């Protein structure tokens, strides 16, 4: 039931929301240090343990800001783990960090990075010089105009 999270209707999503948070956590707990996509409950649940092996992006599959960051990571061929969070029942740690906005990037050392533009810049900077697609022009004027 949790695996098919991305392809569900609103009615089916309501049924998934009724799933016990302990079941969601148990399903995700074996995947915390992998690249496998997981779902994490909101509310009073604490943030999952930091992925020690990979960058992790907290977000929601319908958010265009998360899509922006996700597309940049994909274009630059930077591996990351996706964690879907419940935006209707935001976790307290998420509210305390940045009022519950997504995406939030978590690096293996535990630091949290907010905002899709900053997450995209991170992907551009950690990718090697010839890794993935070139997203920013070399010409400083063209790069500045791209950002306006």
What's the layout of helices and strands?
Blueprint: H1 10-17, H2 21-29, E1 38-40, E2 55-59, H3 64-75, E3 80-85, H4 92-98, E4 104-106, E5 112-114, H5 116-126, H6 140-147
Parallel strand pairs: 1-3, 2-3
Antiparallel strand pairs: 2-4, 4-5
- Write down the overall mean pLDDT: 88
| Beta-strand share of residues | 5-15%
* Model regions low in confidence, pLDDT < 50 over at least 5 residues: 1-7
Strand order of the largest sheet: 1-3-2-4-5
- State Rg: 16 Å
Question: For the terminal residues, how far apart are their CA atoms?
Answer: 43 Å
Number of domains: 1
Q: What is the level-2 CATH architecture name?
A: 3-Layer(aba) Sandwich
Number of strands: 5
The CATH class? Alpha Beta
Q: Helix/strand/pairing class, anyone?
A: alpha/beta
Shape: elongated
Question: Quick recap of the structure?
Answer:
The chain is α/β, with parallel strands linked by helices and 148 residues long. 37% of the residues lie in helices and 14% in strands.
Q: Any descriptors?
A:
6 helices; Glutaredoxin; single chain; alpha/beta
Task: Describe the protein in words.
The protein is α/β, with parallel strands linked by helices. It has one domain: Glutaredoxin. Helix content is 37%, strand content 14%. It has six helices and five strands; from the N terminus they run H-H-E-E-H-E-H-E-E-H-H. A five-stranded mixed β-sheet has the order 1-3-2-4-5. The longest helix has 12 residues, at 64-75. The radius of gyration is 16 Å and the shape is elongated. The termini are far apart.
């Amino acid at each position: 039931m949790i695996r098919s999270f991305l392809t569900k209707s609103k009615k089916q999503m309501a049924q998934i929301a009724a799933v016990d948070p302990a079941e969601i956590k148990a399903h995700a707990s074996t995947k915390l240090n992998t690249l496998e996509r997981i779902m994490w409950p909101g509310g009073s649940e604490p943030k999952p343990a930091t992925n020690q092996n990979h960058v992790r992006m907290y977000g929601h599959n319908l958010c265009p800001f998360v899509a922006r960051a996700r597309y940049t990571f994909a274009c630059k061929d930077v591996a990351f783990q996706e964690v879907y969070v419940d935006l209707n029942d935001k976790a307290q740690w998420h509210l305390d960090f940045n009022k519950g906005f997504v995406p939030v990037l978590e690096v293996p050392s535990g630091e949290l990075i907010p905002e899709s533009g900053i997450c995209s810049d991170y992907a551009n900077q950690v990718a090697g010089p010839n890794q993935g697609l070139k997203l920013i022009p070399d010409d400083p004027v063209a790069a500045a105009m791209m950002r306006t």
